[in-house]
Write a structure and sequence with these properties.
By secondary structure, this protein is α/β, with parallel strands linked by helices. It folds into 3 domains: 85 residues, MurE/MurF, N-terminal domain (Udp-n-acetylmuramoylalanyl-d-glutamate--2,6- Diaminopimelate Ligase, Chain: A, domain 1); 216 residues, UDP-N-acetylmuramoyl-L-alanine:D-glutamate ligase (3-Layer(aba) Sandwich), CATH 3.40.1190; 134 residues, Alpha-Beta Complex (Protein-Tyrosine Phosphatase, Chain A). 31% of the residues lie in helices and 22% in strands. A 9-stranded mixed sheet has the order 9-10-8-11-12-13-14-15-16, with helices on both faces. The chain has a 6-stranded mixed sheet with strand order 17-18-22-19-20-21. It has a 5-stranded mixed sheet with strand order 2-7-6-5-4.
Length: 472
């Protein structure tokens, strides 16, 4: 068992209301799931409060409840499960995770970045798993409750835990760093995601830099040399932590700790060569897109930072693969191929994807399918117009778009001088899917990208995909 009731009480500064069970090794927050033997954390959201469903948690097998209130109607639960009362359950969850983390010998690796942090997390874990036991969260559990849950899933025999850290506002990375207390940190890149909350890209960079500035003095810090905004973070960090171990990666400077370049690129992957700690090698990696090179380099540098031998890192790189909806390669019954990148989209990631299109050699035609970019605020109109113009210049024969900024995206496409078919609607309907399916032929390539809320996977489902599941 990982935790005792007394430990949880101490870590959360809580009060024990009942002591039916004493030992636990997992937590849960969803009364719809199996909670057998788990500590149920009663979180309060904007539209729900789990304190109203404590009886359901017990019915699902919960062995303990972490609460900040206990309604009189649930008083009888004291005879069935252990109960700890805290001032606030979200804070309690965070303190619980931090307290447990301090008992572990596991090395914590923290990753942030405007784009690519989830992919870098996946790559890092896939590489390290070939070396020693590694834990990482599935999906994007990267916020104020996701990070604590990831930490609480770690078993004591785990060598490395890879934790993704996201943010919408300044100060949020600082809080996550305080919870996780990482041993290794990296900011992969700074883009314009969530710019509606920050105003400028520089403000985003300052918030991302918290991962370096707020970590311990002995934390190993890794920097991306290829972007000024990330490389410039090194200078204030060096002033604050002059004795900190700092590493870097680059596709331009062969004196970086990890240096890689793409030798060739296709829909199915890339061939890269370079240096890891001056050790030259190369690898075929089944990952699409030159924009993924930064994620691969960041993952390789993290592996090197934890003393994984360079030759083992090179050997592990071909095992890297992306998660559902992230540069996912899909074959269709008719012989066309789809690149589905429908988990997230912003101007930076859209531009990065489009830069790959002219590099692709195809037997048939190239088709672009795009969805609304979310969370752009006042920048949405210009951003969609600009991406539309870029999409019109990279060699597509047809362009589709769904979303509330359809008109502005279309304006951009037409400004580019695009002469192919344009199929644009504010919302998806089956006629768009049928049109795409009927236009497909053997050797065609379809690139599908949009924010998760745009549900661009609906286009994929119309194309008779062979190796496909509708949910991640």
């Amino acid at each position: 068992m990982k935790w005792t009731l007394e430990q949880i009480k101490t870590w959360t500064n809580g009060k024990i209301l009942s002591t039916v069970h004493q030992n636990f090794d997992s937590i849960g927050t969803d009364t719809r799931a199996d909670l057998t033997g788990k500590v149920f954390v009663a979180l309060k959201g904007d539209s729900y409060d789990a304190h109203d469903y404590l009886d359901q948690a017990v019915q699902k097998g919960a062995a303990a409840l972490l609460v900040h209130r206990l309604d009189p109607k649930f008083a009888d639960l004291k005879d069935k499960v252990s109960i700890i009362e805290v001032g606030d359950t979200l804070t309690g969850l965070q303190e619980f995770a931090h307290g447990y983390r301090k008992t572990l010998d596991t090395k914590i690796i923290a990753i942030t970045g405007s784009n690519g942090k989830t992919t870098t997390k996946e790559f890092t874990a896939q590489i390290l798993s070939t070396f020693k036991k590694t834990h990482y969260n599935k999906g994007s559990f990267n916020n104020h409750w996701g990070v604590p849950m990831t930490l609480l899933e770690i078993t004591p025999d785990t060598a490395f835990a890879v934790v993704e850290m996201g943010m919408n506002h300044a100060g949020e990375i600082t809080k996550l760093v305080q919870i996780a207390d990482p041993d290794y940190v990296v900011c992969t890149m700074v883009g314009t995601a969530h710019i509606e909350f920050f105003g400028t890209q520089k403000n985003i960079a300052d918030a991302k830099a918290e991962i370096y500035m707020e970590s311990r003095p002995d934390t190993v810090r890794i920097f991306n040399q290829d972007q000024d905004l990330t490389f410039d973070m090194m200078y204030p960090v060096a002033r604050k932590f002059p004795d900190s171990r700092m590493l870097s990666f680059s596709s331009r400077n062969n004196e970086a700790d990890v240096y890689m370049q793409i030798d060739s690129l296709s829909m199915r992957g890339m061939h890269v060569s370079g240096l890891i700690n001056t050790k030259a090698n190369d690898a075929d990696i089944p990952i699409f897109g030159k924009h993924n090179l930064v994620n691969l380099m960041a993952a390789a540098t993290l592996a090197y930072a934890v003393r994984m031998p360079p030759e083992l890192i090179w050997a592990a790189l071909p095992l890297c693969k992306t998660a559902w909806g992230r540069n996912q390669f899909i074959q269709t019954a008719i012989g066309a191929e789809i690149l589905f990148d429908g988990y997230n989209a912003n101007p930076d990631s859209m531009t990065a994807l489009l830069e790959n299109i002219p590099l692709l050699k195809v037997e048939g035609k190239k088709i672009g399918v795009f969805g609304q970019m979310k969370e752009l605020g006042a920048e949405a109109i210009n951003a969609h117009r600009e991406i539309g113009e870029k999409a019109g210049k990279v060699g597509f024969a047809q362009i589709y778009f769904i979303g509330e900024d359809a008109k502005h995206f279309e304006e951009g496409v037409r400004t580019s001088g695009f002469s192919g078919d344009i199929l644009i609607k504010s919302t998806f309907d089956s006629s768009l899917g049928e049109k795409l399916k009927s236009s497909l032929g053997r050797g065609d390539i379809v690139v599908v990208k949009g924010s998760r809320g745009a549900e661009t996977e609906r286009f994929v489902e119309f194309c008779d995909p062979l190796n496909w599941t509708t949910k991640k």
